[in-house]
Amino acid sequence: MEMMKCVVKEQKGDGYVVLTEKPIPEVGDNDVLIRVKAVAICGTDVHIKHWDDYAQKRMNPPTIIGHEYSGVVVKVGKM
Ligand SMILES: [Zn+2]
Question: The pTM is what?
């Protein structure tokens, strides 16, 4: 099984953000798979780490977080 690095919010509460590895997901019909080349942290990630009201209304841990990235599309679903 091929693995990828990812940052996970493991549970509700202040903290619980870890760098770990997960299996690379299957590509669904309407998905693309991106090999990430660069990432950044934005204010949303800080809200998630500290588990403030903003995060509590939008997140349901455990989940992979991060949305500021660029990379190369390596696989495309049926589209
Ligand atoms: Zn952002």
Answer: 0.85
Catalytic annotation present for 50: no
CB 22 within 8 A of CB 61: no
pLDDT digits (tens, 9 = 90+) for 49-78: 999 999 999 999 999 999 999 999 999 999
Active site residue 44: yes
Residue showing tokens 């049926």 = 78
SS3 call for 40: coil
Length of the chain in terms of residues written: 79
Q: CA–CA distance from 45 to each of 8, 15, 32 (Å)?
A: 11, 11, 23
CA of 43 to the centre of ligand 1 (A): 6
